[in-house]
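lol forgot to send this yesterday, sorry. struct tokens for the thing we talked abt
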């Protein structure tokens, strides 16, 4: 499959880039995508939620009333979970929500997500570029060239570019990452992907089957 290469002004160049079908043209595996996105979101959870159980609540341990003869249910101390201010029964405790996935499954998920974007014509190849300085205006002009302002956009570069990254930082729906840091969630979360020409080779190199 071949895609046209555009410059940052939104104009077609004379170049075309050939995509590796084993990376950008596979039959997407939805279950692999589901597991990879689930892991990504689970790993982002802090897991610091905490409630006090009966042994952690401050209060007297004196028995409130005698065991029998009151005509009501028996009670222990004031920290009983059924009382207001008592301990929580089976409340949440700090935990790690992360889990592991096989490398091959994560690779399948990423190439499936990339294949979806190519299939839906939501991937645009750009000539390699940089900005003279960190200016949000420069990045906005880039988005306007492709009528992407107000949409979720993921820009993939072959390597970290400080000026491009800082230019996009004030735009909430825009994210800039390097080719070696792509993940399934970011790919699918974006409405459109802008990908630098040189980063395609980097992605194909990282996700090729040895």
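and heres what i got for the seq, position by position
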């Amino acid at each position: 499959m071949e895609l046209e290469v555009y410059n940052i002004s939104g104009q077609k160049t004379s170049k075309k880039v050939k995509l590796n079908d084993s990376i950008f043209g596979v039959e997407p595996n939805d279950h692999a995508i589901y597991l990879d996105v689930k892991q990504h979101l689970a790993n982002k959870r802090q897991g610091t939620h905490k409630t006090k159980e009966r042994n952690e609540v401050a209060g007297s341990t004196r028995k409130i009333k005698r065991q029998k003869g009151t005509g009501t249910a028996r009670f222990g101390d004031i920290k009983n979970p059924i009382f207001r201010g008592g301990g929580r029964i089976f409340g949440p405790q700090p935990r790690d929500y992360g889990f592991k996935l096989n490398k091959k499954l994560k690779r399948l998920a990423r190439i499936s997500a990339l294949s979806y974007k190519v299939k839906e014509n939501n991937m645009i190849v750009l000539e390699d570029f940089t900005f003279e300085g960190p200016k949000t205006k420069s990045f906005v002009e880039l988005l306007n060239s492709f009528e992407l302002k107000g949409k979720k956009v993921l820009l993939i570069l072959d390597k970290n570019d400080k000026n491009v990254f800082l230019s996009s930082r004030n735009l909430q729906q825009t994210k800039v990452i390097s080719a070696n840091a792509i993940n399934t969630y970011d790919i699918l979360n974006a409405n459109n992907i802008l990908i630098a020409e040189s980063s395609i080779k980097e992605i194909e190199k990282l996700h090729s089957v040895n």
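The longest strand covers residues 12-18. anyway ping me if u want another try
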